Amino acid sequence: MKVIRIDRGEGKFREGLKLLQNSYVAFGPLKEDREVYNFKILGDKTPDLNIQNTYLSPKGIVFPQSEVMLKYTLDETKEDCNLMKEAEKDKKPKAVFGIRPCDAASFLIAKRNFDTADYKDPYWISSYEATTFAGLACNEPCSTCFCKSAGYGPFNEEGLDLLFVDFNSYFLIKVLTPKGEELMKKANWQNVVDSDKALADILSKKTSCEDKFTTSIATSNLKSKTILELYNAPFWEEESFACLNCGTCTFVCPTCWCFDIQDENCGCDGVRMKNWDSCMFPLFTLHGTGHNPRGNKQQRVRQRFMHKLKYYLDKYDKGIQCVGCGRCVRLCPVNIDIRRISEKMNGYKACN
Amino acid sequence: MLEYTKKIREIAERLLKEGKVDMVIGFRKGTLPMINEPHFVKRAEDVNELYWDTFCAVNLANYLTDRKERIAIVAKGCDSRNIVNHIIENKVKKDKIVVIGVPCKGMLGRRKIALAAGGSEILEVIDGAKVTIKSKAGVKEVDRKDVTQDNCIICTHRNPVIYDELVAEKVEEQKNVDRYEDVKKIEAMSVQEKNEYFDTLLSTCIRCYACRNACPLCYCPTCFVDESKPQWVGKSIEETDIKTFHFLRAYHCAGRCTDCGSCERVCPMNIKMRVLTKKLEKDCFDQFGWEAGLSLTERPPLDTYKPNDPQDFIK
What we know:
- The complex is a heterodimer of chains A (352) and B (315).
- By secondary structure, chain A is α+β, with helices and mostly antiparallel strands.
- In chain A, 32% of the residues lie in helices and 20% in strands.
- The relative contact order of chain B is 0.12.
- Chain A binds chain B through residues 32-36, 55-56, 65-66, 142-144, 238, 241-242, 244-248, 251-252, 260, 262, 264, 273, 275, 278, 281-283, 286, 329-331, 333-337, 339-340, and chain B through 30-32, 35-40, 58, 62-63, 111, 114-115, 119, 121, 123, 200, 203-204, 206-210, 212-214, 226, 228, 234-238, 265-272.
């Protein structure tokens, strides 16, 4: 394992960030107005690495909230009338700086949906493949972080090309993939250090952070429950009562992948686009007949949690569809807490 | 606040035991600091789940819409005004509702507290004459008014306007409040400045519709943004669609909004969209002398006609 060191004081870090923007569109966490922190194109700004979890996850870099897929014209005097044409897409390589290990792992979860043997989403895949993930390990978890118990962790490397570990005055960077290696070259960050010593230092940081976790998610029994047992459990009425059926949890979630396809016309010109959708919205399941199989909020809340904590688990056998970033817990306007719901599901025993 | 919680539980227990109501709607203690969860209890033995503190800001009238049970509901001044709205708009029947009134000195704003703590994670907040904020960075005391929710600072109806029970003595109402300082500033802007102002205001909107869904006024079976035949508004995060949603929603609240602040409170992106509803509130006040949710007998100005209604707009 190659480990590289960057001293922060010498301007090497900023210099590298500048250099690599010759080859990549670089994203990083930045503060905006009103104290909202999100991943933005860096330009000449330095990413704010004190930000622990951005409001929105960086999933939008690969899977934008709105993305034009195809273009067409309805003008019958034109030869290509009614023909769908591929929209231009910026295929420049992207680099995401300061992505946290939980968010990086979420791309692997989304990949199971967008990149399967039978179906491949070319928009997601091309964007994902063009992106290099330069992660930042977490030295201190938030009180709502439960990545460790969700099956990942503050130094988790899955989904990352590079793992930066912050030692205040310097970073140690684990080079995890050839893509990561390439980025380090482009940024001229090439100070390779003795890896045994560096890996030991990183390990001790990791252990120290893992000891600081104060919360977890209970999932151990979920697999052994039957779907119907959980589906028919009586607690859904109480647990869904507060829900506003807004899309906050699904939009801020790094692993929520649902989208809707819409055609939008302006005069004779039109585009076919993908937009994030949410299982919390009644429109999500509304049929053309007017029938809605998930017509009330209790059904929709149950769907969200059953999908994340049971259907996904059963279908892929790769744990739950949650990386424990805690965004939905922090940002839910009415305090619906996935930890509480998972505990209810995990501990539920149906009466016979 | 412990006193309030105790009293709410006492009243809830009595009402449920006497069979006067089928359920009590209130809050249960949140799993995080600075937020509590809207909650119901149906059995007298569960009343200890109910809880109250100064982070019970979401408007509970929203949870009454179209319910058929006999319900006791915990209500601050603003919530009670929305219950009045619900009654005159036939969304609930007055004789099915028992209002447990909570005199309110203003809810605390969680984002203001987070800012006061310098962005450090909040561990506990203790309300009092001064507000004590315990965060990972240490303990800090701030003036209550500095961390009170914006709409509560200018609230002139802190006591419930209708109630069957009261959990405490009424509090003093605030007098000589300029409710529309921010609106006047915007009114004074040029068209271009207004455009820029609204662009910035709404630039972080993700169209989650939390503002709409937390609003007790927004109970349309299908909201205009969700209509598909015809589809009035696009689904992307294109700014015209975002503005159309926010502006039109505000118009639908004209003469009905009580400035409870739920929309801002729930916005995950910290958008201060109350300026939109407040402008319409101000217009209704200026033109009709109307404040929403104060009367069970008077019809709102926008669903009645009076010969002396202002008609200067007819040119």
